[in-house]
Design a protein that fits this description.
There is one protein chain. The chain has 361 residues and is α+β, with helices and mostly antiparallel strands. It is 29% helix and 14% strand. The chain contains 11 helices and 14 strands. The strands form 4 sheets. It has a 7-stranded mixed β-sheet, sandwiched between helices. It has a 3-stranded antiparallel β-sheet with strand order 4-8-5. Strands 6-7 form a two-stranded antiparallel ribbon. The radius of gyration is 20 Å and the shape is globular. The two termini are 24 Å apart.
Length: 361
């Protein structure tokens, strides 16, 4: 362990946020966030500006929150951005609701239990013999085997044997949620999640499915693969919900157990061969339920419990539980190679961590 990593570890152990995971000192945003200076929450403003300045190489907007207080912001906080695959991490929250409500019994259930037409078209998928084996878990971990496109794509391998980044698999998962509730997923989320945590219709929109028919069983069809436009305030609120393990004030919006699953690498996923490893590298070692994470320590100076959403153009909702931090950023691409190398986003995430340094004597 290098000196910088050691200092970060010591700060993680030493910091005991008043907000914690429950307790009278918690701070929650109303219509706006309570403000604090970096110094008031033990952060170095110069290092934070380094994170901000890197984010601004792709223009856009962003913010950093610690302990429920807004520490730094940049850009237009009300402007909505096309979040692309950050939609996956937001969308999977609807799966948490379905588990809480008993609409889904278990992530290990076959997807066909909730979607009679699951996986077809193309008809060739039925001939593989794999459709009956694909579970909700496979769809939520990118191990179902569907090809990349968000439409009706072919199956590439036996479910659970490889990891392959896909929009098609998550879009089937969105349809399973839609059919389980018989309700538009956007309306479900505004009623149960977005509204209760202070996200309004001006903050977030969710377009209809761009790849498949507009309705399924008479209900509006949405995507988990992509489709959400939102401002960074909405993104930070979603991150804060996850930071507080699914709770908002005194109400448990989604199960804490689901948050814990979403932010960690499932045993059945870690180490799986990665399809298109030239672009996705060892993604199976740092991917949870449609959220990315640092579980394998790829970012050496970032706590391993850190996790984030990640969309094209580098929309990011970053959650750091051990540091009580949420950061959000959206705009133009930082990652010119458009691959999943953490080096593309590390210059944004690492300085936020390193801003928590020992006070000068």
């Amino acid at each position: 362990m290098n000196k910088t990593s050691l200092i970060v570890c010591l700060l993680v152990l030493a910091y005991s946020p008043a907000t914690g995971q429950g307790g009278a000192g918690e701070i929650w945003p109303g219509s706006s966030w309570e403000r604090a200076t970096p110094e008031q929450v033990g952060m170095d403003a110069t290092m934070l500006k380094r994170a901000r300045d890197f984010a601004l190489t792709g223009a856009g907007s962003g913010c950093v929150v610690r302990g429920g207080r807004l520490i730094m912001q940049w850009g237009d906080q009300k402007k909505r951005y096309d979040l692309k695959s950050t939609t996956k991490a937001i969308g999977v929250t609807a799966v948490a609701l379905a588990l809480k409500d008993g609409k889904f019994k278990s992530l290990r259930d076959p997807a066909k239990k909730y979607h009679p037409g699951f996986g077809i078209p193309p008809e060739s998928n039925a001939q593989t013999g794999w459709l009956d084996k694909i579970t909700l878990f496979h769809l939520a971990t990118q191990t179902a085997g569907f090809d990349k496109n968000g439409g009706y794509t072919k199956l590439m391998f036996t479910p659970g044997t490889k990891w392959a980044y896909s929009d098609g698999g998550p879009n089937w998962l969105a349809e399973c949620v839609t059919l389980a509730y018989g309700q538009d997923v956007q309306e479900l989320m505004f009623e149960r999640v977005f509204g209760p945590i202070g996200i309004g219709r001006d903050d977030l929109t969710w377009r209809g499915n761009a790849y498949r028919p507009k309705e399924i069983d008479g209900v509006k069809r949405r995507e988990f693969g992509s489709g959400i436009n939102a401002n960074v305030n909405a993104m930070a609120r979603i991150g804060y919900l996850y930071l507080r393990r699914g709770r908002w004030y005194n109400k448990q919006i989604i199960p804490a157990s689901f948050v814990d699953m979403a932010r960690t690498v499932p045993e059945a996923v870690g180490g799986l061969p990665v399809v298109k490893s030239e672009s996705y590298f060892n993604a199976s070692d740092h991917y949870g339920l449609l959220w990315w994470n640092n579980a394998d320590g790829t970012m050496a100076n970032v706590p391993r419990d850190t996790y984030w959403s990640w969309g094209l153009y580098d929309s990011l909702i970053v959650v750091m539980p051990s540091l009580d931090i949420v950061a959000a950023r959206a705009g133009k691409s930082l990652n010119k190679a458009r691959n999943s190398s953490y080096k593309a986003i590390e210059p944004f995430i690492e300085p936020i961590v390193l801003s928590l340094r020992e006070k000068k004597q």
